[in-house]
């Protein structure tokens, strides 16, 4: 099993804050998204970026990873798995249950490396002195793509060498459980605790979906109609003339389903394109002179 430097993958320093890690993830996920990037290895890079963010966005996982990294491992170095004599068993990330990720693609799709699964995704043994409880429930965290939560899709997971199709109730909340009868250890039930997978375009605030939209200065100043991604597909959004950076626009009912459906909040981020031609530089100079 080979060590992965998640900070290097995201291009951030080991002391980077939560917002810096989130910003780096969002930028790289957009760059390498298979639906956008033309690079030959975009899909693999996209998976690596997702994996790195999944490890570093959670304080407990990050602490466990940092403890291992502090031993001087470098990318490609062989790392012993837990219980093999010195790996990382007993680190702060020593979870009581497995972590399962929905496979089959999607922005939050699984396909994480053996390193990640050994670090975070394996049960760490029995907590009752080695006595195995027969037919007791098995708990697992289930990281689900937001699109599946929005649509109520079935997603496929791999567990104990077999594939299972799990139907996701529309609008299910983090922390809620899905019970699969007889699919746990020793014939017991499997309890899947829901968490939302990281997404390159969206964040979640309750039932609201948050999205940052890049706009050009002239679009913000003069107004424009722009295509905006939502969990239900792209929609057109009118950008009012005279919009400032940080302005928030609301797409009603475009958030997560529920008794009261959430909205999608679109925050404007004004981009300044680099002047690459004399005409473009002259245009900037004209703006400078016009606005004093």
CATH architecture descriptor name of the largest domain: Orthogonal Bundle
Total DSSP helices:
8
Strand content: 15-25%
Radius of gyration, in angstroms, nearest whole number = 22 Å
Query: Tell me, what's the shape?
Result: globular
Largest sheet: 4 strands, mixed
Number of strands: 12
Question: Fraction of residues in helices?
Answer: 25-40%
Poorly predicted parts: 83-97, 104-109, 122-133
Q: Assign the CATH class of the largest domain.
A: Mainly Alpha
The name of the CATH topology of the largest domain is: Helix Hairpins
- What is the first-to-last residue Cα distance? 60 Å
Total count of domains: 2
CATH homologous superfamily assignment of the largest domain = DnaJ domain
- Arithmetic mean of pLDDT: 83
Please give the order of strands in the largest beta sheet: 1-2-6-5
The structural class is: alpha/beta
Spell out the helices and strands N to C.
HHHHEHEHEEEEEEHEEEEH
């Amino acid at each position: 099993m080979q060590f992965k430097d998640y900070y290097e993958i995201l291009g951030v320093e080991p002391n980077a804050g939560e917002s810096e890690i989130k910003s780096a993830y969002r930028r790289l996920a957009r760059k390498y998204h298979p639906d956008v990037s033309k690079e030959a290895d975009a899909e693999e890079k996209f998976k690596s970026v997702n994996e790195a963010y999944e490890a570093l966005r959670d304080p407990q996982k990050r602490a466990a990873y940092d403890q291992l990294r502090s031993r001087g491992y470098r990318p490609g170095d062989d790392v012993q798995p837990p219980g093999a004599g010195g790996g990382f068993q007993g680190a702060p990330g020593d979870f009581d249950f497995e972590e399962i990720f929905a496979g089959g693609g999607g922005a939050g799709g699984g396909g994480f490396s053996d390193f990640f699964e050994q670090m975070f995704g394996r049960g760490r043994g029995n907590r009752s002195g080695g006595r195995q409880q027969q037919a007791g429930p098995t708990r697992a965290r289930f990281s689900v793509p937001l699109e599946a939560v929005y649509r109520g899709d079935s997603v496929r997971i791999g567990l104990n060498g077999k594939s299972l199709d799990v139907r996701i109730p529309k609008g299910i909340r983090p922390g809620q459980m899905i019970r699969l009868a007889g699919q746990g250890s020793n014939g017991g039930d499997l309890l899947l605790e829901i968490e939302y997978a990281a997404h390159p375009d969206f964040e979640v605030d309750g039932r609201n979906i948050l999205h940052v939209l890049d706009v050009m200065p002239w679009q913000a100043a003069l107004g424009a109609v722009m295509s905006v991604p939502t969990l239900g597909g792209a929609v057109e959004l009118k950008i009012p003339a005279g919009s400032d950076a940080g302005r928030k626009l609301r797409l009603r009912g475009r958030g997560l389903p529920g008794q009261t459906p959430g909205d999608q909040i679109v925050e404007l981020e004004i981009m300044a394109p680099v002047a690459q031609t004399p005409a473009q530089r002259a245009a900037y100079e004209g703006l400078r002179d016009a606005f004093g």
